[in-house]
Design goal:
three-stranded mixed β-sheet; elongated; mainly alpha
């Protein structure tokens, strides 16, 4: 390629001058990566792959490569985002689109650690996300998502946990709040049967918030499971939480 190096450099130099670019980064991806994406996009189980953003595509590919239960992942993600949005309406947090997007991806990937072992799979989820080459994300975003997955079950994040030392104070506070939504969302699909159709926070008093739950069928396991998250919620938000089951009026 010696005969094209100098002309190519001249074109690149002109391009950078016209766009006022000080530096460029050469991608580590090559033809084989493009061929892989093209191959996957033609598979039935990868619908609309070409229409996804690089971030969406890399998250989807990581999840599927680890054999996640996609129906459960999408159910929990929908519930978590509904809680995020309605909680913001009730002034329970002030986070925006950037945090919501990372919350969505982390929730979708929260169980990928089961690919290694179900026991302590939240720690395996942290490792897989933290060490995967997720295109379109910077390292801080990857670390934040990995921590959200890490704390989706068992213990809640604590100041001295080694996993969160890379996060700044703002990110640590966001982690405490957003991880609470994932923990509740995971509990609301404890049976993996998608019995909970919708959730939303509504205010029921100055020191109390109500979580309205639209369910289909018997969801006793889910209701038993979310009781274990009551104290954690009240510690993070400083308000009591009341769970209310509403009748599902829409067809299943």
């Amino acid at each position: 390629r010696a005969d094209i190096i100098i002309p190519g450099a001249a074109i690149l130099d002109t391009f950078m001058q016209e766009l006022s670019l000080n530096a460029i980064t050469v991608t580590a991806r090559g033809l084989q990566d493009g061929l892989l994406v093209y191959y996957l996009s033609r598979m039935d189980e990868f619908p609309l792959l070409g229409e996804l953003s690089p971030r969406q595509r890399s998250v989807l590919q990581l999840g599927r490569s680890c054999g996640i239960n996609e129906a459960h992942a999408r159910t929990v993600t929908a519930l978590v985002l509904a809680m995020f949005d309605s909680a913001k309406e009730q002034d329970l947090h002030s986070y925006g689109d950037a945090e919501r997007e990372l919350l969505e991806y982390a929730t979708f990937l929260h169980d990928i650690g089961s690919f290694i072992s179900y026991t302590n799979h939240q720690a395996h989820s942290y490792y897989l996300i933290k060490n995967s080459e997720l295109l379109g994300f910077d390292q801080k975003e990857v670390t934040f998502m990995a921590n959200l997955a890490r704390f989706h079950r068992k213990k809640s994040p604590r100041k001295k946990d080694p996993e969160i030392l890379e996060l700044d104070p703002h990110e640590r506070e966001a982690l405490r709040i957003l991880a609470t939504f994932i923990r509740i969302g995971e509990s609301l699909d404890r049976s993996h049967a998608a019995l909970i159709r919708h959730v939303r926070f509504s205010e029921s008093g100055k020191d109390e918030v109500r979580l309205e739950i639209v369910a289909r069928g018997d969801c006793q396991l889910e209701m038993w499971s979310i009781e274990s998250e009551r104290k954690a919620f009240e510690k993070v938000f400083g308000r009591k939480i009341v769970f209310e089951i509403l009748e599902n009026s829409s067809p299943a």
